[in-house]
Design a protein that fits this description.
alpha/beta, 8 helices, 7-stranded mixed beta sheet, 5-stranded mixed beta sheet, globular
Length: 267
């Protein structure tokens, strides 16, 4: 569980309006808790992991004089379900921010999912491996170099199209704005589908206030376009939604009232 601040989550919100909105969620602007909700899908012999959390290390990571303690629980949660990391057949990475890629390699630099095919959007890969990413926080680039770049000689599948099938029952949806190549995922088939929205929305208020920007989005205009795209998709197909940063387990629905939206947690 990580804690964020309103000054980073809602950088252009009116102060009085934001205060009222946060009170409706019983939220302290200096302490907005957020889980990192990776997902495991099991279908036949497939075990598909979506994102990997922040990672875990016995020793703190020291980067440019700052110390970071990584206490991600993905590995122990898999073990609790009697699943070895070597059992994972596919890993889908929605984008390359630290809290989504930190669990790909161990603190000793060993690939944790050595039998898995990794599914990554080509635009995301290209952005972080060219000078285009030079303006990004050095810590973010450090995580990419440690957890993503070593995959270049591995079992990689590059996603290049919108609404591209990634695995059986998993379709990627272009969702850029937060990052250059972020994807959302449509999971399931037939009449029961789930939309995994990754970081298109960091808080339920980003559904209610589509113009409220976050300090973590690279392109605010595209981020808003993506928000609308995903909300309309979920509404049209009557899909449940899973949000990586919402209260665990992050499941619910986006209720529509004209052009307004409201997040409702699944009971």
């Amino acid at each position: 569980m990580f804690k964020y601040q309103a000054k980073d989550y809602f950088i252009n919100a009116n102060e009085n309006e934001l205060d009222i909105a946060l009170k409706s969620y019983n939220t302290n602007p200096e302490n907005i808790p957020s889980p990192y909700i990776a997902m495991l899908l099991q279908k036949g012999g497939q075990k598909i992991l979506i994102d990997s959390g922040i990672g875990f290390s016995e020793e703190p990571i020291v980067f440019k004089g700052k110390t970071f303690v990584l206490k991600g629980k993905l590995k122990q949660l898999l073990e609790k379900e009697d699943i070895n990391t070597n059992d994972i057949t596919d890993v889908v990475i929605t984008h390359f921010h630290p809290d989504h890629i930190g669990g790909v390699f161990s603190s000793e630099g060993k690939l944790l999912f050595k039998n898995a095919k990794f599914h990554i959007h080509r635009d995301e890969w290209d952005f972080w491996h060219t000078s285009k990413s030079d303006s990004q926080p050095p810590l973010f680039k450090f995580f990419v170099e440690k957890n993503i770049t070593p995959l270049k000689n591995g079992n990689l599948n590059f996603i290049t199209q919108d609404y591209q099938q990634v695995c059986d029952g998993v379709i990627s949806v272009n969702a850029n704005g937060h990052t250059k190549g972020q994807i959302a995922l449509i999971i399931g088939d037939g009449n029961e589908q789930l939309l995994y929205i990754s970081d298109a929305f960091l808080h339920p208020l980003h559904m209610e206030k589509l113009d409220w920007q976050t300090n973590y989005d690279m392109d605010h205009k595209k981020a808003k376009q993506t928000r609308i795209k995903l909300l309309e998709l979920a509404d049209k197909e009557s899909m449940r939604i899973n949000a990586f940063h919402f209260d665990f387990p992050g499941l619910g629905f986006a209720e529509r009232n004209g052009e307004k939206w409201k997040w409702v947690y699944e009971k």
